[in-house]
Amino acid sequence: MMINIPKKPKPSLLSVLGYPFAFLFSIYSFFQIGFNLEDFRRNLQNRRLVTDPLFDPKWEWAVENATAALIETIQIAILASILGCFIALPLSFYASKATNQTTITYYIYKSFLNFIRTIPDLFWAMLFTVAVGLGPFAGVLALIMFSMAIMGKLLSETIDSIDLGPLEAAKSSGAKHNQAVFSSALPQILPNFTAYFLYIFELCIRASVILGLVGAGGVGRIIETQRIFLRFDRISPIIVLILFAVIAIEQFSVWLRRKIL
Amino acid sequence: MNIPEQPISQKVLKYLLTILIVAASIWSASGLEVTPERFFEAPSKIWILISAMFPLDLSSEAIERIVPKVGESLFIAWAGTVIGALFSFPISFLAANNVTFNLLNRFTKQVLNIIRAFPELILAFVFLPITGLGPLTGTLAVGIHSIGTLGKLSSEVIEGIDDGPLEAIKASGGSKISELLFGVIPQVMPTVVSYWLYRFEINLRASAVLGVVGAGGVGAELINQLRFRDFPRAGTVLVVTIAMVLIVDTISAAIRKRIIKGRDIKV
Amino acid sequence: MIEFKNVSVTYPGGVKALDNVSLKIEKGDFLIIVGMSGAGKSTLLRTVNNLVKPTNGEVLVDSKNVTNASKKELKEIRSDVGMIFQTFNLVNRSSVLKNVLTGRLSQVSSIRSILGLWPQEDKQIAFEALNKVEILEKAYVRGSNLSGGQQQRVGIARALAQKPKVMLADEPVASLDPITSRVVMKYLKEINQELGITTIVNLHFLDLAKEFGERLIGLKEGKLVYDGKVGDVSDQDFENIYGRAIKASDMLGNDD
Description:
The complex is a heterotrimer of chains A (261), B (267) and C (256). Chain A has 261 residues and is mainly α. Chain A has helices at 13-33, 37-44, 47-54, 59-94, 103-118, 121-132, 136-160, 165-172, 177-211, 220-228, 232-260. Chain C is built from nine helices and ten strands. Chain C has helices at 41-48, 71-79, 96-101, 110-114, 120-132, 148-161, 178-195, 206-212, 235-242; strands spanning 2-10, 16-25, 30-34, 56-61, 64-65, 81-84, 166-169, 198-202, 215-220, 223-229. The mean pLDDT of chain C is 89. The chains are: A mainly alpha (261), B mainly alpha (267), C alpha/beta (256). At the A-B interface, helix 1, helix 2, helix 3, helix 4 and helix 5 of A face helix 1, helix 2, helix 3, helix 5 and helix 6 of B.
């Protein structure tokens, strides 16, 4: 039976180039990293340097010396996420085409938010410790940048897809642009804002743990000093304490999320 | 006229939340000895630092040191993402409650949660004495953390599929494996791959930072330059890093968009 | 060709979907089943390929016992039974061709199908199936880019690609407009007449049943309450099957 079999469409450029490139690049990367089986085996013998003390946790020491730092870590996260997210709230409206019709300012705010996103949180911390000095304040500033970056992206994308109807309605009844946004657009995204805020708060807690490594406050400093002396017996209880704190906070935020959303 | 009142519970909730946020901020700020004046002084201090970075150090010596390190961060991020993607894919099936039985998927999910809880840096810590200084440690840290996050995200995608096509395959005599391969996988792949790419973007930032503990990448460069107060060179490190991140982000975002949208074949 | 022997189905939770249904269907029959929602139509259909296993009784297809078949036998029986669904059940992200080829899965080795190396003859079967429902030109278009009627045609092609002896259609036109519905029913009728495939269709549109049916089965609360030629069916018979007066929503109507 003669039938007209349609021609198979040519594979897209992306799939033709993409897969081989990804494969080759992966091999190249592993090669560059220099995975050496001999070295690996030799170093594996060192694992007892880590595993032995790891399973001999010094709880007393940890609780005595690390609790204050842990509280500091949490405080950094709280302050930074609150400030960062609330600053990002108005910025996001400016970075969205839906609520900011002025092309120039739109691009300025959008680029600003994109730019902040490109710098890793620890880099911010390093820069701030140099600018404002060592200590938790630098950490707070760094995480404010971190929170702004994430909230800015998430929120502006949400604003991009809101229902423009209420906004138009408000404007057509004579409201000024800012009034209209405040009364009609803001309420629409508040649930998202709250969800993002809780998410960012959790991220900040984890990021804050590390800040101490570069002297920006929190429990990271203690972990680093102990690591240099290979005191994993002190590090492991600290990590467990951190885990508890993180899980407790996560449960709290899940509970909170259920209550308000 | 009977004007209805805003329901009490909502009012109370809003009130409580505001108090909670303000109280938490004040508690934190005082504990950290952070005052509003410090916030006001901060911008000028930052400006001093930034202006000290210009003009950037673009000498060949600087470039020769910095670019390979930035490249190293790229390789670590890519290799780590590959490890994460490869291992998380089968694991995500184990963790999906519509693929495996209850005990197994809950157990797997918990394991993934535990892995996820450790930031890459902490993992790098633990690996350092074993795998030594250098990019291998960084790759392992990034890779293993990625297995955790990708595993959870992928399992959620699998749990959200439409099981209609699976029924159709079953009805035509296909095996359970056929259902998986021709029903589940085509449905989840686009979203899963876009998650892999997004993870790559994030891992790039993580790997830049890992250098701080000596696990490879450009972080060590930056912290050294800052410590030695060689600001122009530090500035170069920043600029090159930002450039790379921007390029990767843009390409990755474009690819992700295309994957989700799919190709339009006009007939 | 198909025989239901005292088939009863009780779902966990106590719902009795089918109550002692006995029925014989000859090869090449075109059977339409009507009844209210929940009367047991979908369940009855699914006992034919054992997607639903009867709690009592058995179903025979081509003299083979479906209900008690081993896994291997069941797969063989299923590959001879094609099924189309109300929600089409296409893999949206895959192309039309790929969807139709899944109908050949039971005949092709696993490795070849995974790698996408379908044998030429299977591809040819798929193309011919698509041609039969006049949608061949869309072979490489993505499933989700088609209209509802087109998607159902692809569903029919997928079932046809199995080269089945039996065709089961579970409310195939419930989500389609009047014109498209009639097109789909026309294809099912043609396939039945030209290829001699025994066809069972679940419908809840009574006018459609009268238009296309030959033999009509009525189910009410899981029991077989009517079995006769479509020409002999009266409105009173329909009311008995439904247990109430006929409503406008029971008719598909025409496009105005």
